[in-house]
Amino acid sequence: MPWVCALLLLISSAAGAQQATPRLISDSPEYCAELAGRFAAIGAEAPSHLRALADEGQRLCAEGQTRGGIAKLRRALKEAQRGE
Amino acid sequence: MAAPAEEMGGWRDIGAYLKSAGFRFALLFAVLFLAAILGFALMLWWGTAGTLSRQIDDSIRADAIGLQEAWRGGGASAVKEAIGERLAVDIDDHAIYLLVDNTGQRLSGNLDRWPGAADAPGSWSADKVRRDGVVIPARLHHVPLNQGHRLLVGRDATDREKLRALLSEALLWSFAVAVAFALAGAAALRRALADRLRAASLTAGAIAAGDLSRRVPLSTQRDEFDQLGESMNAMLDRIDQLMAGIKGVSDSIAHDLRTPIARARMRLENALLSAPDEESLRAAMETTVSDLDGISRVFQALLRIAEAEAGARRAAFAPFDLATVLTDAAEVYGALAEERGQHLETNWPEKLHMVGDRDMVLQAIANLLDNAVKFTPEGGTIRLSASAPARGKREISVRDEGPGLAAEDRARAGERFFRADPSRALPGSGLGLSLVKAVAALHGGELRLGDAKAGAEKSGLEAKLVLSSRA
User: Which of B117, B127, B136, B324 qualifies as a FRET site for B433, CA 20 to 30 Å off?
Assistant: First the structure.
């Protein structure tokens, strides 16, 4: 039984360490929504292909593919800024 | 009981191997080879992973400066807006930002909490962050702001860590291969050295065992080992020549002195047994004393030659006037030549300063004049001249009208006890020119023999003694 206790202690300490590690939060649906809002603010005059790109990003986010959606929204924003 | 002795022998062999020049050269080669590989690896690391690290740090630094300016311009809200804008266009998704207030409350950024490793203001740290549940490496920089606010700027360092891991693995394998090559190269070098030295070593061993005829075999490579072999062979030839010379001199001494000693002994014995009166006995003893004086002169000449060849008298070199020495010699041998109906012609400058051994030079000139008087026929002319053909050079020439010397005899004329056929009937020991040659060598010069009148029936002999005044 002592080895079971040791194993549990090890697992709990590892879990604690994981909890203590800071986490990146820029891949959440909330952030996806924030980026969509940013694009809406500047994207009204953006070319159609950029609007399509942003729409595609929002769609991916809605389907749960948050990272992919965020990447597309970011690309659309960057291109739109460059166009300005 | 033999085991400890064998063990000691084994250790001794290992010790000798480690001390050997071949092993040390091989070790030096291996160390240099590995040092070169290490240098190459460091340069490669510095040029790739190092460059990537520096680029990451430069990017963070530039970002931090921009955000500090935003802070100065508009405070926390300006920084929040700047961070939002930067994150919004971060296509690579590498940027990390966190702005917290004086209570530690997160105001902006994409990190949920402040990492422990970046507590110190202004610090740079390599820490871990989680992305989608996966722990990834990050490079973080703590930028202190006023009013207790803190800003963290960082970058995802996954690419850098992957590159480092790849490089480390590649370099580790390369180093392992390099070590193998270094060891193989060192072993080959040691073997090559041992092979090249074996011939010289075997020759030296054979010579030490008494076989003086052995020489170091030379290869066609003409490298340093061949140069060493050539030097050894030249040294062995010289030793051979000297030993042959010593043997020849010993034989000559035994041969040339046996006759006069035997004659003196016989004369004394005859006188002792059959002298009719005291006067006959005295006459026999006087003749014997004269014979013994001749033997003594031979030994004296041998000693002077040995003295000149050893160069011991060089310490006693002093400046003197060669013209005076020539005058003294001409006075003695001029009278002798006159007695024999010969004529001595002289020609030299009024002063001929030189540095050397005056007595030895006088003895050499006397020997040359003695030969000239001996071989010049009655009514003939002997010419004694001297000059300074170059700075520090003195040339003394003695020309006679004798039969001269054949070319093969000239080559041997300086050997001890050598006498050419025409001179065997004349008195002499065969040591005169040996001494002249030794005196020339003592003064850094040489003795040149040639025809006095080339092409004539009696070509005569010109003995030219060249001396260096600065020897």
Answer: B324
B417: enclosing H helix or E strand: none
- CB contact, 8 Å: B92 with chain A? no
Q: Which residues pair with B96 in a beta bridge?
A: B154
Q: Which residues pair with B344 in a beta bridge?
A: B382
Which amino acid, one-letter code, is at B465? L
- In sign, the C-alpha dihedral spanning B282, B283, B288, B293 is positive
Distance, CA of B182 to CA of B168 (rounded, Å): 20
Q: Which of A21, A24, A31 sits opposite B96 (nearest CB)?
A: A24
A38: chain B residues, CB-CB within 8 Å? 84, 88
Cα distance between residue B268 and residue B285, in whole Å: 7
**Better-predicted residue by pLDDT, B314 or B355:** B355
Among B49, B58, B56, CA closest to B162: B49
- DSSP-assigned letters across all residues of A3-72: HHHHHHHHHHHHHHHHHHS-BB-TTSHHHHHHHHHHHHHHGGGS-HHHHHHHHHHHHHHHTT-HHHHHHH
Closest chain B residue to A37 measured between Cα atoms? B88
Q: What is the pLDDT of residue B422?
A: 66
> How many CB atoms are closer than 10 A to CB B432?
21
Among the partner-chain residues B114, B129, B132, the one whose CB lies closest to the CB of A21 is B129
pLDDT band at B338 (very low <50, low <70, confident <90, very high): very high
DSSP string, B38-73: HHHHHHHHHHTHHHHHHHHHHHHHHHHHHHHHHHHH
Structure letter (DSSP) for residue B377? P
Contacts of A31 in chain B (CB under 8 A): 110
The H or E element spanning position B385 is strand B381-387
d(CA A68, nearest CA chain B) in Å: 11
B371: DSSP letter:
H
B418: left (phi over 0), alpha (psi -120 to 50) or beta: beta
User: Does A2 have pLDDT greater than 70?
Assistant: no
Backbone angles phi, psi at B234, to 5 degrees: -65, -40
Chain B's closest residue to A39, CA to CA, is: B88
B416-468 pLDDT, tens digit per residue, is: 777 776 666 667 777 888 889 989 988 999 999 988 887 777 778 999 999 98
Specify the pTM.
0.51
In this complex, the residue of B90, B112, B130 whose CB is nearest that of residue A74 is: B90
Do A21 and B110 lie within an 8 Å CB cutoff?
Answer: no
* Chain B, nearest residue to A35 by Cα: B88
Say how far apart CA B217 and CA B230 lie, in whole Å: 9
For residue B129, the chain A residue with the least C-alpha distance is: A22
Q: Do B113 and A22 touch (CB under 8 A)?
A: yes
How confident is the model over A44-67, as pLDDT tens digits? 778 889 889 999 999 999 999 998
- Tell me B165's DSSP state: H
